[in-house]
Automatic annotation (TrEMBL):
Cited InterPro entries: 4-carb_acid_sugar_kinase_N (IPR010737), 4-carb_acid_sugar_kinase_N_sf (IPR037051), NBD_C (IPR031475), NBD_C_sf (IPR042213)
Residue span, Four-carbon acid sugar kinase nucleotide binding domain: 284-433
Pfam family, one: NBD_C
Enzyme Commission number(s) of this protein: 2.7.1.-
Keyword Kinase part of the UniProt annotation: yes
Keyword Transferase part of the UniProt annotation: yes
Annotated keywords: ATP-binding, Carbohydrate metabolism, Kinase, Nucleotide-binding, Transferase
Gene3D superfamilies noted in UniProt: Four-carbon acid sugar kinase, nucleotide binding domain (3.40.980.20), Putative sugar-binding, N-terminal domain (3.40.50.10840)
Family according to the record: Belongs to the four-carbon acid sugar kinase family.
Protein name: 3-oxo-isoapionate kinase
Native source organism of the sequence: Paraburkholderia gardini
Domain Four-carbon acid sugar kinase N-terminal: 8-252
GO MF annotation list: kinase activity
Length: 450
């Protein structure tokens, strides 16, 4: 690695950004995730870094609101000499022309990373997300009995096809993204990975010569990431490159750039040590309405529960909820606060409700000393972590595939060092919230970066 960070990533939400942080850290890269483009003082505090990230709420923003934040981040990444900027999107690619537009992000960031190749990596097998011939597939819910869950086309997925803000109604990612400003995308299907590197390069060059705005790469297996990683490393060596996709972009990069004799093995959640029991009560806020999170809430037997009706959230009700939550926590009870399952997230009050819930999380944390918290839900996590007022996260260990335990870095003493897990709605097993509490959760052999 050079003196500066070669790898940069910009997360369109906080949960996904921590997943990328985890993959890079487990590969032995010194990595820090910031909440804004880092200042020189924050970089000095972090120490030497191989990779840096910025987490955002872009997935929940309209393009006009996305652009100024992306401009600031793109300029800062370029100033720091980043060779590859990974625009990190959800592995299900849920987005739309009006909300979290991936095309709008590409058009803004390309000015800072002018490589003619813009690769879009279309799957993350570790999360059971697959891209075949340009079409995205994702695992559904387990059928029980130890059987593997069915894998469904994303536009037929029972959760993602009905996402309250950005339902996935088209499985072909080229068609999905053309409505967001990326018409005529090229495709490298999985069969090209078995050919020679020269033939793969020729296919990529052909798409570039055809002036494709981006090139989609199939991913059906982790082995497919190795040739993609080689392309990323080689193509970014001369001209800085913008890549789009889930954390599989980081996986591909580390496969190609880590030295073969590296003394730091790539760790995975499956090969992990146990997480120590939390030193105090754990506070969980679940804003996700996904069926997976609902089942996890039902299975969380070690918590006192506080149900919130988001449609009735106002300043007065926040005080009432706050009193109930803090009273339980001060008595030593773990508390799981969750939004009513009947809430209509398609309502016009959705953003106001999310911000109100984020404010509640901050008020709970500021009301007493907590050492471990968890926030479930992509948009909820993004707004809540921003509301807390810290400036960064470093990696501690893995709770489940796709969910990292992180350390919060903040100037405020009462916030600095809090252990925080951010969980996407569909992530984790049914016992996730129980595993969050004690040694039944699992931790990788990695030490925190800071």
């Amino acid at each position: 690695m050079s003196d500066g960070p070669a790898y940069g990533f910009y997360g369109d939400d906080f949960t996904g950004a921590t997943d990328t942080l985890a993959h890079l850290a487990r590969a032995g890269l010194r990595t820090m995730l910031f909440f804004q483009p880092p200042t020189d003082a924050q970089l000095d505090a972090a120490g030497p870094l191989d990779a840096i990230g910025v987490a955002s709420a872009a997935r929940a923003m309209a393009p006009p609101a996305m652009k100024p934040a992306l401009m600031r981040a793109g300029a800062r990444f370029a100033e720091l000499g980043v060779r590859i900027l990974h625009y990190k999107v959800c592995s299900t690619f849920d987005s739309s022309p009006a909300l979290g537009s991936i095309g709008a992000a590409v058009s803004t960031l390309r000015g800072f990373f002018p490589n003619p190749l813009v690769p879009v990596i279309g799957g993350q097998p570790g999360l059971q997300r697959y891209c075949a011939f340009g079409n995205l597939f994702a695992a559904g819910s387990s059928t029980g009995g130890g059987e593997a869950p069915p894998v469904l086309r994303i536009d037929r997925h029972p959760t993602m096809s009905r996402h309250p803000a950005t339902p996935m109604l088209e499985a072909d990612l080229r068609l999905h993204l053309q409505d967001q400003g990326l018409p005529g995308m090229g495709l490298i299907d999985w069969r090209h990975y078995t050919s020679t590197s020269g033939r793969l390069d020729a296919q990529v060059n052909g798409h570039i010569e055809s002036a494709c705005p981006a090139v989609l790469f199939d991913v059906l297996d982790d082995a497919h990431l190795a040739p993609i990683g080689r392309l990323l490393a080689e193509r970014s060596a001369g001209v800085p490159l913008l890549a789009v996709g889930p954390s599989s972009v980081a996986q591909a990069w580390t496969m190609a750039t880590r030295s073969a004799d590296s003394s730091v093995p790539i760790a995975s959640p499956a090969a992990a040590l146990q997480v120590q029991r939390s030193s105090g009560p754990v506070f969980v806020f679940a804003g996700s309405l996904s069926p997976t999170t609902s089942r996890q809430i039902d299975a969380a037997h070690s918590y006192s529960r506080v149900e919130i009706d988001p449609a009735q959230v106002d300043a007065g009700s926040l005080d009432r909820y706050l009193d109930d939550i803090v009273t339980l926590l001060r008595s030593g009870k773990n508390v799981l606060t969750f939004t009513s399952r009947a809430f209509d997230q398609t309502s016009n009050r959705r953003d106001d409700t999310t911000r109100a819930c984020a404010a509640l999380v901050r008020r709970v944390v500021m009301s007493m000393t907590l050492r471990r918290i968890c926030i479930a839900g992509g948009d909820t996590s993004s707004f809540a972590v921003q509301a807390l007022g810290g400036w960064g996260l470093s990696y501690i260990g893995a709770i489940a595939e796709g969910v990292a335990m992180c350390r919060l870095h903040a100037d405020a003493e009462e916030l600095d060092g809090i252990e925080i897990a951010l969980k996407g709605g569909q992530m984790g097993g049914i016992d996730f919230f129980e595993r969050l509490l004690d040694e039944s959760a699992r931790r990788t052999t990695d030490k925190p970066n800071l």
